[in-house]
């Protein structure tokens, strides 16, 4: 049963992605989506309350879950590279979301997952330090906002430089700075 549900959701998501590559998000209706997959509106509403929830579902399933499951301090750059490659491979959809729903929608959506990942890394990195929870959370927020800002600027710059270049530059900047910040917070406590 669970496989059937996921198959149905995937078909709906694939239809939405195809439609997003052809027209603006606000011009897509639920009827367009279900017609494309040979389903009815009831089936759609059984799985999703609206098109936004479907959009959230497929972004989470295809891109953000990878970040949330696998990230550690040693591997975060691989997951970030995966996210950049995903957005680049789905360029038309990414631009559709960015233009139709605005920068804020994409930033908010990506921030939630990036923050969970960065927070886990920060907390793991601070296990041997006396750092207040609020300071750890602020550190996670700071780096999350920075990463999301880099990502949205990259989209606005027409996906340049390459995912590898941008991930390498990010890695150079972040290497050691999280730990340094946490150590400075620890000294202040």
UniProtKB/TrEMBL annotation:
InterPro entries: Homeodomain-like_sf, HTH-type_Tx_Regulator, HTH_TetR, TetR_C_Firmicutes. Residues 29-48 bind DNA. Keywords: DNA-binding, Kinase, Transferase. Pfam families: TetR_C_8 (PF14278), TetR_N (PF00440). The keyword Kinase applies. Transmembrane segments: none annotated. The keyword DNA-binding applies. PROSITE patterns: HTH_TETR_2 (PS50977). One of its GO terms (molecular function) is kinase activity. Residues 6-66 form the HTH tetR-type domain. This is Dihydroxyacetone kinase regulator. It comes from Clostridium punense.
């Amino acid at each position: 049963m669970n496989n059937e549900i996921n198959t149905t959701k995937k078909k709906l998501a694939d239809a939405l992605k195809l439609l997003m590559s052809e027209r603006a998000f606000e011009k897509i209706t639920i009827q367009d989506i279900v017609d494309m997959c040979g389903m009815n509106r009831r089936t759609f509403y059984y799985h999703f309350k609206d098109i936004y929830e479907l959009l959230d579902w497929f972004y989470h399933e295809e891109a953000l879950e990878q970040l949330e499951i696998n990230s550690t301090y040693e591997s975060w750059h691989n997951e970030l590279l995966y996210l950049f490659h995903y957005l680049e491979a789905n360029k038309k959809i990414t631009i559709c979301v960015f233009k139709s729903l605005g920068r804020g929608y994409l930033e908010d959506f990506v921030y939630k997952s990036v923050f969970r990942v960065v927070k886990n890394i920060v907390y793991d990195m601070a296990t041997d330090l006396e750092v207040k929870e609020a300071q750890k959370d602020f550190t996670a927020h700071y780096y999350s906002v920075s990463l999301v800002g880099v990502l949205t600027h990259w989209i606005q710059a027409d996906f340049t430089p390459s995912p590898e270049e941008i991930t390498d530059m990010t890695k150079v900047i972040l290497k050691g700075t999280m730990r340094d910040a946490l150590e400075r917070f620890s000294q202040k406590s």
